[in-house]
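Thread: Putative methyltransferase, structure

OP (GT): Posting the sequence first so everyone is looking at the same thing. Length is 443 residues per the record. Can we get the C-alpha cells written out before standup tomorrow? I want them in the notebook alongside the other entries.
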Amino acid sequence: MTINVGKVAMIPTISIEIGERARQNLGNLEELEKSMKTSGLIQPLAVQEVNKNHFKLLAGERRYSVLLANGVSEIPVRIYPSDLSEIEMKIIEKAENFYRKDMEYWEYDNLVHEIHEMEQAIHGTANRGGAAGSGHKLKDTAEMFGITDASVSTAIKRAEAREVAPELFENCKTQSDANKVLKKIDETIIKQSIAEKAEREKSPNSNFAKLASCFICGDFFEGVKKIPDGVMHLVEIDPPYAIDLNKRKKSDGESFYQQSDYNEVDVQEYQKFLANTFQECYRVMADHSWLICWFAPEPWFEVVYQELNTAGFNTTRMVGIWPKPSAQSMQPQVRLANTYEMFFYAWKGQPALNKAGRGNEFRFPPIPPQQKTHPTERPVELMTEIYSTFAFPGSRVFIPFLGSGVGLVAAHRLNMSAIGFELSKNYRDSFLVKIHNGVEYLR
C-alpha cells in the first residue's frame, strides 16, 4: 500500500475550516501554548485541499487553536488531495490523536473502535483461512498504535458498552474505573442491547441477518408443527440430558454463559420427551436423510437407542465419538474420568454418507470454558466436520435445540440452509453478539 505523505506548504490561518472534530474536549491549552512559544510548531498540521485557498483541517486542532489565538497569520501544513476519501480523512485525524497525552479515556476508546472499523471498511475484514495479510485484524490495529491486541479488544468493548449504557460510566475518570464498571454490568443486558442494535443496523441481505432469522426463540414442540413433512435432509439434536447438568459441569467460566437458562428435563419424563422429539423429527425429515443425536450414555444409552428405533429410524450402537484432552468424573475415587462425548447417528430410508468410509472419531479441541456462551457449546470446526460427513452442500438442516447456535454457523460455512429453536433469548443474544463481532468466526 502506498503511503500518502501529502505536500508541505505555508497557508493563511484563516483559510482553514475545522468542521466536525473527533476531539470533543480540547483540554487545557495553556501548557501547549507555553511549549509552542518555547519550541515552536514542531510538525505541520494536516489539511485537505477543498478548493483553491480553502482547506479543511484533518489533524492538529489544539495547535491550530493556539496559533489562531496568538494571531499567527500563516502556518505550515501538510496538504492532502481533495479526492481523499471520507474514511481516509478521518483516519488521518484520529490516528494523530492517539499520541496526545491528555486524551480522555472514553475518547481513546471511541477512536480505537472507529479506527478499527474504518480500516476494515478500507481493507476488508479478515477471513478465516484466507491468504496471509488479507483483511484487517485486531492485530493490525494494535500494531498501528503500538498497543497489544488485548488492549484494542478491551477498548472496543468499553466503547460499545458506553454507547449502549452511557449513564453507567458518568462517574468514570479513567480506563480503570470503566473496567470496574464493565465487571459489574449484567452481561445479559449488554448482550441484549448490542444484539438488538446489530439487528437494526445490519443489511437484510447480510450473513448476520440471514443467520439471525434462522435462530428462532420459541418452543421446539410448538414451532415444529409449522414445518411441513419430509423437507429436512439432516437433523442434529442436542437435547437436555436429564443428568442435572449444572452440578456436573465445571464452574469455570460460569459468568460467561448463563447455566441458569439451561432447560433440563425431569428424569421421570425423559423417555417420553425423547419419543416425542424423535417422532416429530422423523416426520419433517425427507426420505433418505440423517439424524444426529447427542446423549449421556450413563444412564440413557439403551433408552435413546430404543426410542430411535421405535420412531422408525435405523441406527447402530457403534456411535460417533468426540474425544477430549481433559477428563471429568463426579466420583474420581471409584470411577474412571470421562474423556469423550457420544452421538447416535440414525437414518430414514437409505441415505449415503457425503464422506464415505470416514471413521467414527471426530477429534477437535473443545472450547475453553471462559469462551462458552452455552454449557454444552461445541467448537464450530467439530460441527462443520460432522455436518459435512453426513450431508451435502445445499442440504436443509434442522436443529430442534439450538443452544449456542453453533450449528447454524457450521451449516452456513457449508452452504447449507439451517433453522432451529431455542427457549432462551439470552442464548440468542449471545449468538448474535458472537456473529456480530466475529466475521472470522463466520469465515
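GT: Both are above now. Quick notes for whoever picks this up: The first strand starts at residue 7 and ends at 12. The chain has three domains: 7-94, 105-185, 207-442.
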